[in-house]
Write a structure and sequence with these properties.
heterodimer, A: 241 residues, Alpha-Beta Plaits, three-stranded mixed β-sheet, two-stranded antiparallel sheet, 7 helices, 11 strands, B: 337 residues, mainly alpha, 2 domains, binds iron/sulfur cluster
């Protein structure tokens, strides 16, 4: 059975919030919109977002690393938010595994949000229904769009190309390969939710500059070395790819 | 978790209604079996009307928890999987059962129909309370709630409210059951106290997940939340974390304990020992239980910590003990160095 999902590369995600912003932009005007905002230009702006970016720091000073974690609904394969819904408004599609909310049936009881361990559902105080990432279902099946545009808004906009979209059950898909080859992992694996969205772990980039530095003439400008180093790294990366 | 006032109101009204009906009808059942004389019809009429009004008020109040009240009927659709759906169905049927029982009594439809409706309503009342409790107990992402103590305590509270109200009614209508209901009030409140203490003590021993587990990081890696994506609160930080409530909890919880358990226990024992039973002692017992339970429910919500709070750095860390070798079982892991 197909299971569409996002795969997010934590190696390249720069935490720019472009995906979150474009998600809001697309979804507030498309089939599932609007995503209500309150006090948008005031001191305490709040509103519904399908996607939020978290930033964490690991390690002990001075060996710390910062990474960013974009988090939208993970379209869990055993979604705990679905069976608790008393109206059946929350459902998981058979054909592609996307978890959706039917706004016409939702009574706004919030029980599904209570049953999501990831905090990926947000209640819209204006529409009085529960909202969440739709995996841009109104884009990916839209035949009026050119095929290369039939992807989630967040994937298309990511300037670092850190987001991928596809069927994680299809061995020929880009996302399947990325998960397999790069050790894709999921959030909260022990919650029994079996999330579909995966993250690609950060990996160490080792560059041996010893040989290179032997031949290096150190100029007066200390920054010169940095420039050359950087050039070398990107050169290497090109070779690899 | 943020305490929804509408749900606390539903608990109080439904609890008093169901608790008192269960005990009232139990007397009727006993008299059917030849034990005790049952209750006079006028008293049953009055009590059942009161119970119908209460459950009606409860349903009305609970609808304020919903975004779309007029669609509330749709909540019957997922009876097979959702405890909320079951609660809605059982509570509604309980209400109807009360009406049918009253009609059977008033119209004199005979003991068969009367007890058929009575027994059904009795069972539906228990199922309704059980389903409500299961909404909380089945939520495995709020570890404080996810225990059978939640269910047992919830049902005990219904009985506490019911028995203290029935004690008052016994005095009001000069029924011969005052001693029985005083004893039952004592029993249920004492048991309730035990289970509430167990609920609180258990919180110290819960194995709480950590941010490392949430992010699927190796266990021993230090990790800090730097930024949560927005400078202001959002639905997730207000619904699942009630900051003001957390600050007030240490004050409110002792008051809740005092009103729910200490005052009623004291008054019941006092009545017993001195033989002084009047509207004041019985009335204060019931009202103290009522207000205490409202505060107790408030605390119950505030005490609940949803695991999604981990992502925001709002999850408690105390009481957590390192589970060695836990992450090693994982097939995938993140490498940051
Ligand atoms: S991430 Fe949350 S809302 Fe999305 S499918 Fe999983 S449990 Fe449901
Ligand atoms: S808030 Fe809506 S979608 Fe969520 S459980 Fe309630 S009715 Fe279902
Ligand atoms: S898939 Fe669509 S709805 Fe989901 S986070 Fe991306 S842009 Fe938002």
């Amino acid at each position: 059975m197909p299971q569409y999902a996002l795969v997010i590369d934590l190696n390249t995600c720069v935490g720019c919030h472009a995906c979150a912003t474009n998600c809001k932009e697309w979804n507030t005007q498309a089939a599932f919109g609007p995503l209500s905002d309150f006090d948008p230009y005031g001191k305490e702006p709040t509103g519904v977002w399908y996607n939020r970016i978290f930033t964490y720091e690991t390690g002990e000073f001075p060996d710390v690393q910062v990474f960013h974690l974009p988090k939208s609904c993970l379209h869990c394969q055993d979604a705990p938010c679905v069976p608790v819904c008393p109206t059946g408004a929350s459902y998981k599609r058979e054909q592609d595994g996307i978890v959706l909310v039917n706004y016409d049936d939702c009574i706004g009881c919030k029980l599904c949000a209570w049953s999501c361990p990831y905090g990926c559902r947000e209640y819209d105080e204006a529409d009085k229904v529960m909202k969440k990432c739709t995996l841009c279902i109104d884009r990916i099946y839209d035949e009026t769009l050119p095929p290369e545009q039939r992807k989630p808004a967040c994937v298309l906009t990511c300037p670092a190309k850190a987001r991928f979209f596809g069927d994680i059950e299809d061995p020929n898909s880009e996302v399947y390969k990325a998960i397999k080859e790069r050790n894709g992992f999921v959030l909260f694996p022990d919650m029994g939710t079996n999330p579909a969205n995966h993250y690609l772990p950060r990996t160490e980039t080792k560059v041996n500059l010893e040989e290179f530095e032997k031949h290096l003439l150190r100029p007066d400008n200390p920054l010169f070395l940095e420039v050359v180093k950087r050039h070398h790294v990107s050169h290497k990366a090109e070779e690899v790819s | 978790m943020h305490p929804p006032i509408s749900l606390i109101f539903f608990f109080l009204t439904a609890g008093t209604s169901i608790g008192s009906f269960i005990l009232m009808y139990f007397l009727e059942l006993l008299s059917l079996l030849g034990r005790g004389g049952g209750l006079p019809d006028e008293v049953i009429y009055k009590l059942v009307v009161f119970q119908i009004v209460l459950i009606g008020l409860g349903a009305f109040g609970a609808s304020f928890h919903l975004g779309h009240k007029l669609r509330a009927w749709k909540a019957v659709k997922r009876f097979r999987t959702s405890w909320l759906s079951r609660e809605a169905v059982f509570s509604a049927l309980y209400g109807f059962g009360l009406i049918l029982y009253l009609l059977a009594k008033v119209l004199g439809l005979g003991p068969v129909l009367e007890h058929l409706f009575g027994v059904s309503t009795f069972i539906l009342g228990i199922l309704s309370g059980f389903s409500t409790a299961m909404i909380y107990a089945s939520n495995r992402f709020v570890l404080e709630w996810s225990t059978s103590i939640t269910v047992i305590y919830y049902l005990l509270m219904y009985l506490m409210l019911g028995s203290s109200l029935m004690a008052y009614a016994s005095h009001l209508y000069k029924l011969p059951y005052l001693g029985t209901f005083l004893f039952l009030t004592f029993l249920f409140v004492a048991l309730g106290l035990g289970f509430r203490i167990a609920f609180n003590v258990r919180q110290f021993y819960i194995k709480r997940p950590t941010l490392n587990e949430a992010l699927n990081l190796p266990h021993n890696r230090p990790i800090r939340v730097l930024d949560t994506g927005s400078t202001t609160d959002n639905f997730c930080t207000t619904e699942f974390y009630y900051k003001k409530g957390k600050e007030m909890l240490s004050t409110v919880l002792p008051v809740a304990y005092f009103l729910t358990f200490v005052v009623p226990l004291f008054l019941v024992v006092y009545s017993w020992l001195t033989g002084v039973v009047n509207y004041w002692t019985l009335g204060i017992t019931f009202l103290s239980l009522l207000f205490g339970s409202a505060l107790e429910r408030w605390c119950f919500f505030v005490e609940g910590n949803h695991v999604q709070n981990l992502f925001y750095g709002l999850y408690p860390e105390e009481g957590y003990r390192l589970r060695k070798g836990y992450m090693e079982r994982k097939e995938t892991r993140i490498s940051l160095y």
